[in-house]
């Protein structure tokens, strides 16, 4: 089921990419740029996209690291409460545990705090 959904998303993204490439070619044709300028523009766009994708990966890693530290802190607090014989319910609220690393496509934040592996 997940593979089917991913295939549909991939096909939709492929269609969107084709439309965007066609639009870019129309703009370049209308601007009367020579073919060498097209490769320069394409290269610059690819550099910008690579930079943005790298920033996204870095932010995803940082988010996973912070969420893991948050969850570890919650578990430590609950353990201390139990150690002193205080029920968790007496805190007056239910702590919210984050689950950013529990999505099937990414297993971020599964290790001990500080040992979250950096993205490859």
Topology, element by element:
Elements: H1 2-30, H2 35-83
Walk me through the structure.
This protein has 120 residues and is an all-alpha fold. It has one domain (28-120). It is 65% helix and 0% strand. It is built from 2 helices and no strands. The model is unreliable at 102-118 (pLDDT under 50).
Largest beta-sheet characterization: none
Assign an overall shape: elongated
Low-confidence residue ranges? 102-118
What's the helix count?
A: 2
User: C-alpha Rg, in Å?
Assistant: 23 Å
- H/E element order: HH
Number of strands: 0
Compact summary:
With 120 residues, the protein is mainly alpha-helical. It contains 2 helices and no strands. It has one domain (28-120).
Features of this protein?
120 residues; 2 helices; 0% strand; elongated
């Amino acid at each position: 089921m997940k593979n089917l959904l991913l295939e549909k998303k991939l096909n939709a993204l492929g269609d969107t990419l084709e439309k965007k490439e066609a639009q870019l070619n129309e703009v370049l044709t209308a601007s009367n740029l020579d073919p060498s300028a097209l490769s320069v523009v394409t290269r610059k766009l690819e550099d910008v996209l690579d930079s943005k994708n790298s920033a996204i990966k870095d932010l995803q890693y940082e988010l996973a690291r912070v969420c893991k530290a948050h969850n570890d802190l919650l578990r430590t607090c609950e353990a201390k409460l139990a150690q002193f014989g205080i029920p968790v319910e007496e805190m007056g609220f239910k702590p919210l545990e984050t689950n950013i690393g529990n999505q099937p496509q990414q297993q971020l934040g599964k290790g001990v705090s500080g040992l979250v592996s950096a993205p490859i």
